């Protein structure tokens, strides 16, 4: 059975989002201040992380910010972009009660060997990009361009394809 809080479809990742206590490895897309509406309609400016993976954003509290700062050795949130974090369920005391919360593991998550896919154009590892996992991006680019490529190379191939099509259209117009 799903957690009862899922029925309310909150806008942010919560401890109840993790199935059976499983950790979640996410890649930070961006971090910034956003106005968040809490229970009872109270608005508050919070630091929020968005992810490359198809996952809800996560409100970052001081504890989680300190953990990211420690593992990546920088307090500058822009330097966290593109970095992986491993999120897990924990409990903390709030107003005298124990409540579920999200925490970030105090180490850099290791990519599994299965996830490592090499770009057939530049040889670098394909990483999640454009809202797709590495495997999804590799499959998409293989289908579209005939080769599995990283996001950077996919942009180059898209530009080259567009230029070829424009040149073809121009040469067809010249023949008319």
Features:
2 domains; alpha+beta
Overview of the structural elements:
The protein has 176 residues and is of the alpha+beta class. It folds into two domains: 4-104, no CATH class; 113-175, no CATH class. Helix content is 27%, strand content 26%. The chain has three helices and five strands, in the order E-E-E-H-E-E-H-H. A five-stranded antiparallel sheet has the order 3-2-1-4-5. Strand 2 and strand 3 (58-60) form a beta hairpin. It starts with 23 loop residues before the first strand and ends with a helix. The model has no long low-confidence stretch (mean pLDDT 85).
Report the structural category.
alpha+beta
The share of residues in helices is 25-40%
Strand count: 5
Please give the order of strands in the largest beta sheet: 3-2-1-4-5
Could you state the order of secondary-structure elements as H and E? EEEHEEHH
Mean pLDDT: 85
The helix tally amounts to: 3
Number of domains: 2
Q: What is the overall silhouette? A: elongated
> Biggest sheet: strands, sense, closure?
5 strands, antiparallel
Radius of gyration: 21 Å
Distance between the termini: 66 Å
Strand content: 25-35%
List low-pLDDT spans: none
Briefly characterize the structure.
With 176 residues, the chain is an alpha+beta fold.
Layout of SSEs?
Blueprint (H helix, E strand, L loop, with lengths): L23 E14 L5 E9 L6 E3 L1 H11 L11 E11 L2 E8 L29 H12 L5 H25 L1
């Amino acid at each position: 059975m799903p957690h009862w809080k899922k029925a309310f479809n909150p806008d942010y990742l919560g401890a109840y989002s993790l199935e059976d206590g499983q950790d979640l490895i996410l890649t930070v897309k961006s971090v910034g201040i956003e106005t968040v509406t809490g229970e009872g309609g109270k608005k508050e400016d919070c630091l929020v992380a968005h992810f490359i993976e198809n996952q809800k954003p996560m409100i970052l509290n001081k504890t989680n910010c300190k953990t990211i700062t420690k593992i990546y050795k920088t307090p500058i949130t822009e330097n966290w972009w593109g970095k992986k974090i491993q999120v897990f369920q924990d409990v903390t005391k709030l107003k005298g009660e124990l409540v579920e919360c999200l925490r970030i593991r105090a180490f850099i998550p290791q990519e599994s060997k299965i996830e490592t896919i090499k770009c057939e154009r530049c040889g670098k590892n394909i990483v999640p990009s454009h809202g797709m996992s590495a495997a999804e991006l590799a499959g998409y680019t293989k289908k579209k361009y005939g080769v599995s490529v990283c996001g950077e190379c996919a942009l180059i191939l898209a530009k080259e394809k567009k230029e070829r099509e424009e040149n073809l259209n121009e040469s067809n117009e010249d023949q008319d």
